[in-house]
Amino acid sequence: xxxxxxxxxxxxxxxxxxxxxxxxxxxxxxVGLLFLLNLVFIxxxxxxxxxxxxGELTKVEFINQFVLYYFLFELGIRYFLQPVPALDVxxxxxxxxGKKFIANYLLIKSFLSPYNLLxxxxxxxxxxxxxxxxxxxxxxxxxxxxxxxxxxxLHFFNIIFKKKLENNTITWIVIxxxxxxxxxxxxxxxxxxxxxxxxxxxxxxxxFLIIIPILLSVAMVFTCYRFFTQYLYLxxxxxxxxxxxxxxTAKLSGFESKGLVNTLIVQELKLILRHKRSRSAILISxxxxxxxxILLNRGDGEIDLAMFMIASILLTGIFIMNYGQFLWSWNTNxxxxxxxxxxxxxxxxxxxxxxxxxxxxxxxxxxxxxxYFGWEILPAIVATALYNVGINSMLVMRxxxxxxxxxxxxKSSMMNYEGTGAxxxxxxxxxxxxPLAIYGICYLTGIPQLGxxxxxxIGVIGIALRGVFFKAIASKLKKDKxxxxxxxxx
Amino acid sequence: MIxxxxxxxxxxxxxxxxxxxxEIPSGQSFGxxxxxxxxxxxxxxxxxxLIRATSGTVLVEGExxxxxxxxxxxxxxxxxxxxxxxxxxxxxxxxxxAQINGVSKGxxxxxxxxxxxxxxGEILGKGKYIRDLSKGNKKxxxxxxxxxxxxxxxxxxxxxxxxxxxxxxxxxxxxxxLKEGKAVTFLISSHDLNHVTEICERIVILENGIxxxxxxxxxxxxxxxxxxxxGNAEVQx
Lengths: 490, 237
Known about the structure:
The structure holds two protein chains of two kinds. By secondary structure, chain A is mainly alpha-helical. Chain A contains 26 helices and no strands. In chain A, helix 4 runs parallel beside helix 8, helix 8 (137-164) runs antiparallel to helix 10 and helix 20 (345-367) crosses helix 25 (466-479). Mean pLDDT of chain A is 82; it is low at 239-245. By secondary structure, chain B is of the alpha/beta class. Chain B has helices at 40-47, 90-101, 105-114, 116-119, 135-146, 165-179, 193-199, 221-236; strands at residues 2-11, 14-24, 29-33, 55-60, 63-64, 75-78, 153-157, 185-189, 202-207, 210-216. The N and C termini of chain B lie far apart (40 Å). At the A-B interface, helix 1 and helix 5 of A face helix 2 of B.
């Protein structure tokens, strides 16, 4: 067994990005530890908080009502954050190493995951502070075991879920609907769709029922094991759905005959939609469309225009920021092609610019429902969209040329910092602060509407001068050509 | 040694490989030739249980490769670079294989001495990781790894590809040397008709996933193969 652990360590230690990986891991470790400590303190202090809400129920009964929803939350965290245990198995498949060995290794490795500390951090402190005093040690221990075993089953369920059912977003929708229905039915109609807390309470009184979660977890472990042994074929290792699923861009190919710029736009769209990493840039942009809700929904009536400005810069510029920060890195391994085939470079730049322009138009349209918070936001959306197209997209195109780094497009973007350098950390500052500064200066004159107008006008000037910007970026491209080819090759 | 029954591999509607019956006796040197996409690598991958067969079985010493894993203990193989562990140095990789295959340190050194000329001082003792080696050197390393530990069955995909002419000849000599005296079954796919006719006793031509010719190699075989492929080229142009 020891060699496999040694190989994993060497793979990490000798990774070309070792220092960065290590830094990120240490940082995430500290964040995770703080989060767990928070959970421990909340859980330990839960007793006094519960007295206010529990009504006629005892504290434990009240907690039991929510355990099910905690597990939904835990599944969510596991699903989105916990990686499926991976081992680059291809070098081992042809060697005299059994598939059972590999499967066992993957199972044990998966078990040693920090996410398995989540449930102990939540349940153990409350076990001492609330459950033991109320139920006595023996019953409390059953209560704790029950929950920890369920959490363990979730761990293995998550692996199966992610590996086998991931294609079905529908699965998630069904799960959420069932839980929502359970909540509504339980609260308003006194009917339990999932009698989870009843089972939990029954287990405390009749200890033999603990066999149910135990059987569940054994079944999950066994399914995982079978899954790992049966899916060790090259076909399963390759991401096959990437090739078959993407049909939308194939239809766009008709536009390719309409000039070089259009060809390049279609080509880039194909690149974006056919790779994991870039697709998630779009998904995150869509999610961020809801972000201004947090900024705007303060509930105290009057919303000031500056808040609107920040919100609408984000709304109309999110794709420009999210996609644009890696604008050149997306073309990792294609630099040789672009730099030998495309002449002049300004056409290449214009195609990227048009893509950013379209994204601003689309997200502006999607942002229109925000007029719900007041009609004043409409001019703000128009002005910031113009600014984002005229100035910010140029800034992004130029700033992302600031020592861009290679990206492996086929890796998921979750917890993936590949391609991130100083430029990516700083890029947000001028994008948001620029228009805010313009707005702020005009605000001093006493007419805030003037600020919105100024932002829009400067955006229009930027659009009018786009040819100048293109040339500047093209000459930078030409100057950095050899460095780009070297840095953007994996 | 190897028995193939009704073996089929299809990707959606497309049939990549369809072999009704093929038997490779123990100790035979078996050469596989055919154009790109003829199904050579698919066949080798099926034999190594790296991909699932759509139907049919590959038996090695009477046991299906996807059921028993016994064959792994006496089979050495190299299909592509992914067989190597990119972040190890060549020395570490050989030591790892020696450990897995139960080869002693002395035997490993003896084995590597055999490859000294082929490696040409570019592979061992350079302090490089495997990922930093050139394509040709990775190929040499992979072939040397496949031949470690006296395997009874050796499966090599395009062993001569990416090698310089001198290395091709050196590799050919090593293979011939290993064949002598021992009952090693060799399975080699290649585009190089010269080499494959020199090494192999039997040559099978695959086309569109089907066995179209099964020849016993003799001095006329090379001419026959050349004739076949140039005939093919005529039809297609």
